[in-house]
Write a structure and sequence with these properties.
Strand order of the largest sheet: 12-13-16-17-29-25-24-20
Distance between the termini: 37 Å
Oligomer: single chain
Order of helices and strands: EEEEEEEEEEEEEEEEEEEEEEEEEEEHEE
CATH class of the domain at 2-162 and 242-266: Mainly Beta
CATH topology of the domain at 2-162 and 242-266: Beta-galactosidase, Chain A, domain 5
Helix content: under 10%
Largest sheet: 8 strands, antiparallel
Number of helices: 1
Strand content: over 45%
Structural class: mainly beta
């Protein structure tokens, strides 16, 4: 960790191309701490006292979004996850864990996480993460592997973009939220924003941050958009909706892996 006038900053490593500069904080959830394009930062950076959920772009794994009351049933067994957001469990264990740097070049870095096998996550498993920059942007991938036990999985990314001046987003439908602000297994028409919602979407998303036009793509078919704050907008590709362990279970078997990717690039 470094010190800047008494303010502790996360320790980061850097990968860069001529136009794209990425800072990664392995011990702070393996997150992309900042992404700058032609010298302009596009993410909300770290400030003293900010919660781990509130800055950079971090991996949500092995679940993304809320799990209702932290409870789910898998293969006939009831599980209770630790509550860390109101009455619910949110965003998995990756964003609060220290990741290991597996490999690094000037333009790429590979990170590795051994997931816990305890009350935080009772299944173990491995997660690999790779970030790669080029002159057009950054591509990030996550691979989740089951080792000894099968488990449910739903993962993705949670980037905090500095408030865009424009958002070009045309989802197919939206998952309905109930009175507990939890996604249910029902698709409805998309209302006018602002949103803190989950959408079915397969089209690229366009935003503009401080004059930098960006195009967001992923092989995930589910996106959460949170644009209620005045200072930021979160645009989060996920392999499943929030509360997926209760409404859209996807399992990974021992020895199997599931992967997904997310790209942020200049829109030209």
């Amino acid at each position: 960790m470094g010190d800047n006038g008494g303010v502790t900053e996360p320790s980061t490593i850097t990968i860069a191309s001529d136009h794209v500069h990425a800072e990664i904080a392995p011990t702070e959830g393996g997150r992309l701490a900042q992404l700058s394009i032609d010298g302009t930062p596009v993410l909300v950076g770290h400030t003293p006292g900010v919660e781990p959920t509130g800055w950079g772009s971090y991996p949500m794994v092995p679940w993304a979004g809320r799990i209702r009351n932290g409870r789910f049933t898998f293969d006939g067994v009831d599980y209770q996850l630790p509550i860390n957001f109101g009455e619910h469990a949110i965003h998995g264990v990756g964003f609060t864990s220290a990741w290991t740097v597996h490999d690094q070049t000037d333009r790429t870095v590979a990170l590795h996480l051994v997931m816990p096998d305890d009350e935080r996550w009772p299944f173990g498993g491995l997660v690999g993460q790779q970030l790669m920059v080029d002159d057009g942007g950054i591509t990030m991938s996550i691979t989740v592997t089951a080792t000894d036990r099968a488990f449910p999985v739903s993962f993705g990314w949670h980037p905090w973009f500095r408030k865009p001046s424009a958002l070009d987003f045309h989802p197919i439908a939206m998952y309905r939220r109930d009175d507990d602000h939890i996604t249910v297994d029902e698709l409805v028409e998309v209302p006018e924003g602002p949103w803190d919602d989950c959408f079915a979407n397969t089209e690229p998303i366009g935003i503009e941050v401080d004059g930098i036009p960006l195009r967001l793509t992923s092989n995930c078919g589910v996106w959460v958009v949170y644009d209620e704050p005045t200072y930021a907008t979160c645009i989060e590709p996920q392999t499943g909706p929030p509360d997926a362990f209760n409404i859209a279970i996807r399992r990974v078997l021992p020895g199997e892996s599931i992967s997904a990717w997310y790209r942020i690039e200049l829109r030209g």
